[in-house]
Amino acid sequence: MEILSKNKLSLFRKLNQKKYRDETGLFLIEGLRLAEEAINAKIFLEAVIIRNNSDTPVWLGKAKESVEFFGANQTQMDQLSDTKTPQAVILIGRIPEVKIWQNQHSPLTLAVDRIRDPGNFGTILRTASWFGVNQIVPSEDCVDVYSPKVVRASMGALFHVDVYKAVDLDTFINDWEGNVLSLDMHGEPIENIDKTPETLLVIGSEAHGVSRNILKNSTPIRISKKGTGESLNAGIAAGIALWELTS
Question: b/e per residue, 33-55, with b = 16+ CB within 10 A?
Fold first, then answer.
């Protein structure tokens, strides 16, 4: 196992920025659970970084022989990670080729509109995967899906769903041949909606909601409030809506 050099450390640290992820096609996968998920999902790896004096998990043996292994001290792990308590393993993965939407058929597809909070986006991916909704279409102004915080919040779901190339959602919805539902505080109660095949569900951010143009060209639906509170965050709202639409 090689010692992590200053040059390699500098290169890998830059992957916390979208600019360098785009330039290199690489992204960070931090933590034992995420690392194992990535390897099991056969994400192509460029490097494995292990904190010095840490036990090497058995499943790391599944990594291809071409993958470089580096040992790093605690200071280096702190510099690579954007968390307060970095874990013992960080992988450098290659971003898979982004799929372009080509009228894939599915009972339910999820579109995300202007979700800029990485925690919410990651939670939405995790929730969609749980409910078997594996087609995710982001708008062009969503957070980068390979941001370390999105990857971490997805808890490995990113490796098991298809996140398509970002689109202009207005155009995408105009071309959609099935039913389009949008979560909105003033919509029809979701429990009253008939479930139809080829449905597109649009989730907006907590701050801005779904855009007005999309609301005009879709059926607004709401999650009925039983108690108090101003709103639900996007991740929780997505979970409730997906449960209703897949039950």
Answer: ebbbbbbeeebebbbbbbbeeee
Residue 130's φ and ψ, nearest 5 degrees, are -60, -40
Residues of the chain with confidence (pLDDT) below 50? none
Q: Where are the domains of the chain?
A: 2-94, 108-246
Nearest to 142 by CA among 186, 208, 80: 208
How confident is the model at residue 232, as a pLDDT? Answer: 85
Distance separating alpha carbons of residues 227 and 220, to the nearest angstrom? 21
Whether the model clears a pTM of 0.85, i.e. scores above it, the answer is yes
Query: Which option is the CATH number for 2-94: 2.60.40.1930, 3.90.1570.10, 3.40.50.300, 3.30.1330.30?
Result: 3.30.1330.30
Assigned token pair, 172: 């995408």
Alpha-carbon gap, residue 115 to 46, rounded angstroms: 29
Tokens of 200: 């597109």
Strand partners, 87: none
| CATH of 108-246 among 3.40.30.10, 3.30.260.10, 3.40.50.12780, 3.40.1280.10 | 3.40.1280.10
Instruction: Quote the pLDDT of residue 64.
Output: 66
> What is the tens place of the pLDDT at every residue in 80-135?
988 888 788 999 999 999 999 987 778 899 999 999 999 999 999 999 999 999 99
Helix residue ranges per DSSP H, 99-230: 118-130, 148-154, 169-175, 212-216
Q: Are 162 and 183 spatial neighbours (Cβ–Cβ below 8 Å)?
A: no
